[in-house]
# Entry
Amino acid sequence: MLYSQQYGKVISSLGWVDKGGLWVYDNITDKAETITLSNANYIVLFAGCNEYFSVLHVFDNAIEITVHHFGDPTHILSKLAFNSFGVSLDKTLWKNVPQYYVADFSVDNDFDTHLVKIGEENIVLQGDKTEWYRKGNYDFMYQGLSSVTEYFDELIFTVQRDGSLYRFSLKENKLLQKIVLAGNHGNPVPHFGDRLIWTVDYDTLVQVSVKDWSVVKTKKLQGAEKGVAHFIGELSLNSDRSLCVVPRPFAGDVITLNENLKVKRRCILGKQPLQAVALDDQIIARDWKTGELLKGKLKKFFFF
# Structure
C-alpha cells in the first residue's frame, strides 16, 4: 500500500481480490474504487520518487512494468514488456522508479523465479545475480525469491519462509551477507528509514541498523492462538519516517511504534486489516480477505 500526502491518494492491490486492478482511495472525496489496468494474474506496486510509482504486471508467460504518477494513478505513462519492445513516451520517467524486480513466469516454457532489470528499451533477465540463491540450500517448491530492493550499489533480496535479508553487491556482482532476523521464517520486505531498516519476520517487528546491518531490536506484536502462530500485516512508515505503522489482522487493529519500539497509538478497526497507512491521525486500511476499505482514528495507547 502506497500513499501520497501531496495528492491525498492511497493505492493498493491485493492479487487475490483485485487481479490486474489498481485500488485507489481519494482522501478528498472519501471514496475508493478499483480500476482495471491489465488482464494480469496479479499486479505489485513499487514506490518511486517525485510522486511516481511503478506497477509489475505478472502473467503466466510474460511480465509488463508500467510507470504511473499519483496525480492520475490509473493512467499508464510508459510501459515495457519482457522480450519485446514497449511504448515509452518519455524514457526519463523510468529514472523515477525501481530498476530491479522479481517475478515468477515462464521463459521458453520453463516456469521459474526471475530477476529482471529495466533496460534501454525493454526488460532484461539478470540471472547472474541470483546464482547464490539457485545454488543455495532452499526448498524451491516453497522458498522462492520474494522481493528485491535497491539500496545504493546493492540489491537486498528476500526469500519466502526464510526470515532473512540478503545483501548483494552490484559492483562486485556477488552476495555479501545474510542477515538473520527474528528466526521466525517469515516473508520480510525491508523499509528504509534514516538510520534503520524496518521489516517484519512473521509475527515480529525487526529493526536493522543501516550502518553495520546488525539486528538492533525486535518486538513480537502478535500472540499465538491455540498453539498456532499468527502473522502481522504489511508495515509502512509515516510521512516523516518517525513511526512504523503495523496492521494486525488477528487483533483487528493498527498500531504505530516509535524507534524504541514503543506503541504510541492504536486504531481499532475490526475485521482483519492487512495493509495500512497513516494520513496524520487517520488510518486507511484494507481487509485481508475481502479488500474492503477500513478507516479509523489513531488514539493514544498506554498498555502494550
About this structure: The longest helix spans residues 15-18. Residues 233-304 form a domain with the Thrombin, subunit H fold (CATH 2.40.10).
